[in-house]
Amino acid sequence: MRILSKRQLKELVLYSPQHVARLEKAGLFPKRVQLGPNRVGWVESEVLEWLEQRLANRESPTGTPV
Known about the structure:
Layout: E1 3-4, H1 6-13, H2 17-25, E2 33-36, E3 39-43, H3 44-59
Antiparallel strand pairs: 1-3, 2-3
Protein name: AlpA family phage regulatory protein
Pfam families: Phage_AlpA
């Protein structure tokens, strides 16, 4: 299992930290993992699965953009 830092997440997803937080709060993005008092990360496989779902939705006319 690999944990992504905020910087790695931003490179992969291209969303601002504020937008990621809004999506997490709405249940539309994988939840962060608290690694320490001032450190968070995201499980890479969960983020990649989220991205794959976005790619699959672009092919269907009913896909909801995020």
